[in-house]
C-alpha cells in the first residue's frame, strides 16, 4: 500500500506566524485530501487537491503529483488552527476513493 | 443541518456484546465509508459502499458487518466486541471518488 510521511510531527507556533506542512507519499495517486482534526475530534475537509494549487482564505495547498509530495501552507495562524492536520493520498475510481492517512502534524498555536 | 451524522456519539459496552453504529448523510452523495481511528490517532479505512454496493472491504474481522439500506445510510454492526475494538469510528461520504466529508465520530469503549 501507499506509504505516507508527514512532517513535522509536532509544531508550536505563536499566533500570527506562518507555517508549511509537508506530505510525502510513495506511489502515484489520483486523489489527495487534507484534513484538520480539531481538538474536539471533528475531521474537517480542507482541500481536495490531487495536483496543482488551491487557496482558501489563510490556507493554501500545493500538490506536485509527479514528485509525490503535497504542501499545506497556513498563514497568520490563529489559535483556532490548533489540532492535527492529516494528509490523505489515495486512489480514486468513479465510485469511491481509498484514502491512506498519514500520521499527521500536531499543531499548537499559542497567544 | 448536519451533513454526515452518526449515532451514538459515545458507546460504552462490555466485552462479548453486540452493538451497532448508525450513519446518515444528507449531502446526496452516492458513496459512504467507515474509518477507524485508534488511540494513536491513526486513521484507516474499513469499508466503502457505493449505491448500496460494497466497493472496499479492507482486512477487517468478520465480526464487523456494514449494512447499507439505501445510499444515504451506512450502518456498522459489531458482534462479540473485544477490548481491541475500542476506538473512534468515523463515517464519511463522498460523490464518487471526490472530497470526503466526515461525521463527528463514535467513541467506542469496550470494558
Low-confidence segments of chain B, given as residue ranges, are none
Shape of chain A: globular
The count of domains of chain A is 1
* Rg of chain B (CA only): 13 Å
The separation of the N and C termini of chain A measures: 40 Å
Classify the helix fraction of chain A into a percent range: under 10%
CATH homologous group name of chain A:
Immunoglobulins
Content-based structural category of chain A: mainly beta
The sequence of SSEs of chain B as H and E is EEEEEEEEEEE
Oligomer state of the chains in this structure: heterodimer
Residue share in helix of chain B = under 10%
What is the top-level CATH class of chain B? Mainly Beta
The greatest interface here is: A-B, 26 and 28 residues
Please name the CATH architecture of chain A: Sandwich
What is the CATH homologous superfamily assignment of chain B? Immunoglobulins
Total discrete domains of chain B: 1
Largest sheet of chain A: 6 strands, mixed
Mean pLDDT across the residues of chain B is 95
CATH topology of chain A: Immunoglobulin-like
Explain briefly what this protein structure is.
The complex is a heterodimer of chains A (111) and B (111). Chain A has no helices and eleven strands. Chain A has strands spanning 4-7, 10-14, 19-25, 31-37, 43-48, 52-56, 59-64, 69-74, 83-92, 97-99, 105-110.
What does this structure look like?
The complex is a heterodimer of chains A (about 110) and B (about 110). Chain A has about 110 residues and is mostly beta strands. Chain A has a single domain (about 5-95), classed as Immunoglobulin-like. Chain A contains no helices and eleven strands. The termini of chain A are far apart. Chain B has a single domain, classed as Immunoglobulins (Immunoglobulin-like). Chain B is built from no helices and eleven strands. In chain B, strands 2, 4, 5, 6, 9, 10 and 11 form a seven-stranded mixed β-sheet that branches. In chain B, strands 1-3-8-7 form a four-stranded antiparallel β-sheet, with no helix packed on it. In chain B, a hairpin with a 6-residue loop joins strand 9 and strand 10. Chain B starts with a strand and ends with a strand. Chains A and B meet through strand 4, strand 5, strand 9 and strand 10 of A and strand 5, strand 9 and strand 10 of B.
